[in-house]
Amino acid sequence: MSHNSKKIRELIENAGCELLFLPSYSPDLNPIEHWWNQIKTAIRKELPKYDFNIHQAADAAFQYL
Predict the structure, then answer these.
(1) Contact (CB, 8 A) for 43 and 55
(2) Residue pLDDT, tens place only, 21-44
(3) How is the chain split among helix, strand and coil, in percent rounded to 5?
(4) What is the pLDDT of residues 11-23, one digit of tens each?
(5) Which of these, 12, 46, 2, lies nearest to 55 by C-alpha position?
(6) pTM for this structure?
(7) Domain locations along the chain
């Protein structure tokens, strides 16, 4: 049963609560998604190195920002 079903909606309203719907997922409207994209890009730049170290890659990614 989905949270959109009539039965669930009635249960929520009978409990004195209001059912609120969130907007659809829009990563382009979420600033943190752009930041994570930059971090992942910077870490990927470190991947080709022979002695890859996740800690060094993360440090390099944060310095990149």
Answers:
(1) no
(2) 777 777 777 888 888 888 888 878
(3) 60, 0, 40
(4) 999 999 988 877 7
(5) 46
(6) 0.41
(7) 25-65
Contacts made by residues 37-42, CB under 8 angstroms, sequence distance 24+ = 38/64, 38/65, 39/65
**d(Cα 46, Cα 58) in Å, to the nearest integer?**
9
pLDDT of residue 25: 76
pLDDT at 29: 76
> What is the token pair recorded at 56?
């060094």
Rounded to whole angstroms, how far apart are CA atoms 2 and 8? Answer: 8
Tallying the residues shown for the chain, one arrives at 65
C-alpha span between 19 and 12 (Å, rounded): 7
